[in-house]
Design brief:
InterPro entries: Glyas_Bleomycin-R_OHBP_Dase (IPR029068), Glyas_Fos-R_dOase_dom (IPR004360), VOC_core (IPR037523). The chain is of the alpha+beta class and 158 residues long. The chain contains three helices and eleven strands; from the N terminus they run βββαββββαβαβββ. The protein is 18% helix and 32% strand.
């Protein structure tokens, strides 16, 4: 590949960062409610993706308020089913206490979640979203490396 002005490229062009992540769903409305009622996301309705012929919404953009990260929730039942039990994103919190507070919040909202689990270097919490995909939090607070992290048949299988 060559550049129009400088000859052959010797390195790839720059990337500014992540524009947005995409998560498949079986139901846009159900997943949207989860992310905006349970997690700190705001629906950016002006970016709704609609089919030209029917006006049906097939994707929505949500914004993580604290970081401005954008996520697209995209209607794709086959891919959503394939990601059941998978944690595509792990959120970061500062301390184990923060995980305990997240667990309390999730339980109060009726969201199925793990106990706070011991990982190899810190602790984590796992919750299930409406499609059966996992949302995971890991804390920055750490302990000495431990090869005997918690194993849980549902939340942290080997």
């Amino acid at each position: 590949m060559t550049s129009a002005t400088s000859g052959p490229l010797t390195q790839p062009p720059p990337v500014l960062g992540i524009d947005h992540l995409k998560i498949p769903t079986n139901s846009i409305l159900t997943k949207l409610e989860f992310y905006t009622r349970i997690l700190p996301f705001k629906h950016l309705a002006h970016f709704d993706h609609r089919r030209a012929d029917s006006g049906e919404i097939f994707g929505v953009i949500i914004q993580h308020a604290p970081t401005d990260l954008l996520i697209e929730l995209r209607l794709n039942p086959a891919h959503a089913a394939a990601q059941r039990g998978w944690d595509a994103i792990t959120w970061s919190v500062e301390t184990r206490k923060d995980l305990e507070m997240w667990r309390e919040w999730l339980v109060s909202k009726g969201v199925e979640c793990s106990k706070v689990l011991k990982g190899f270097k810190g602790w984590c919490l796992v919750a299930e979203d409406p499609d059966g995909a996992f949302v995971r939090w890991y804390c920055q607070e750490s302990h000495e490396w431990d090869a005997h992290a918690d194993v849980d048949e549902k939340w942290l299988p080997n």
